[in-house]
Design brief:
10 helices; alpha/beta; 311 residues; single chain
Length: 311
């Protein structure tokens, strides 16, 4: 599997852009047991700071270059939405064309979190639904063990989630998607669709997350609360922190709610909590991606792909 070339279309916001690249590279290398060939690109319409634009210019290739010489498979991430309807995002037209192109090329693909929501909306018209509270934490999901993508995972798959929206399982199944991993509280975790010989895998969670990823997001959301950028204190991630860490976080919550000023963030017990974190989902995440890469290898065409157009 080490000779597979993966195109990573990294659309995450600036604050998580380089970390996302590192997370996927690390997970793929663990899955293959060695270095992987990643071709890095991004949707040019995603808003970027000057620093991130400079990094992209140095480390990333234009999306058109990826299309001209397609890789063996794709991983596409989402970004933080700025419009209530994904079809109003500045990158939507190019994203929709990317979905169509990947299918026309019969490329195996993984669509992560918001990218999954966007791809399903474009392909099937299924609108994501706003949840009553944020789905955040590490959840055990029941798996359909008979499917090759779930091989070696046993009966449950631990996966981190961090999202405000969900794609209803019933709507997905009615539209021909196969749900391979799910839980009542989180809905569909891993699901897929076959189209034009391509297997499209959709992930509402984040198996690529490192041990500190949810902590950083939780701390970011607390920062938004104390700066009055959101009216409520953020939801505590499910089954993520140790009992000792929960005690520290509860003490901090009381201080933050009493003071509610940016200065209180200087007392956030970051180092103590970081030291206690355990990446409980890592084994399952590596196996999931190992299974996916095996399917990519098995279905790879011997001839080079021919590009069918430009975005």
């Amino acid at each position: 599997m080490t000779d597979i070339t993966i195109g990573l279309i990294n659309n995450m916001p600036d604050s998580a852009f380089e970390a996302t690249e590192s997370q996927f590279r690390g997970l793929l290398e663990a899955a293959v047991g060695g270095p992987v060939r990643l071709r890095l690109t991004t949707l040019p319409e995603v808003p970027r700071s000057a620093d991130t634009k400079a990094y992209i210019a140095q480390q990333y290739a234009p999306l058109q270059a990826l299309m001209a010489e397609p890789p063996d498979a794709l991983i596409i991430t989402g970004t933080e939405p700025i419009a209530p309807d994904l079809r109003d995002e500045p990158y939507w037209s190019r994203f929709a064309k990317l979905v169509d192109w990947s299918i026309a090329e019969s490329l195996p693909s993984i669509w992560s979190c918001l990218a999954a929501h966007g791809a399903v909306l474009h392909l099937s018209g299924i609108q994501r639904q706003r949840l009553g509270e944020k789905c955040c934490g590490v959840f055990a999901h029941k798996v359909q063990a008979r499917h090759a993508l779930m091989s070696g995972l046993g009966q449950s798959l631990l996966t981190p989630h961090s999202r405000w929206n969900d794609l209803p399982i019933g709507s997905l199944e009615d539209a021909g998607y196969s749900v391979l991993s799910a839980r009542e509280e989180t809905g569909a975790n891993v699901f897929l669709k076959q189209q034009n010989g391509a297997q499209l895998v959709f992930l509402q969670g984040h198996p690529e997350y490192e041990s500190e990823s949810l902590l950083k997001e939780y701390r970011r959301d607390i920062g938004r609360y104390v700066r009055s950028q959101q009216p409520f204190y953020p939801t505590l991630p499910h089954e993520y922190f140790t009992p000792a860490a929960l005690t520290l976080l509860d003490e901090f919550r009381l201080r933050a709610q009493a003071q509610r000023a940016p200065q209180v963030m200087s007392t956030f017990p970051l180092a103590e909590i970081q030291a206690s974190l355990v990446q409980t989902w890592r084994t399952g995440a590596v196996q999931l991606y190992r299974n996916w890469l095996k399917s990519v290898t098995a279905g790879r065409r011997p001839m080079s792909h021919k590009a069918h157009g430009v975005l």
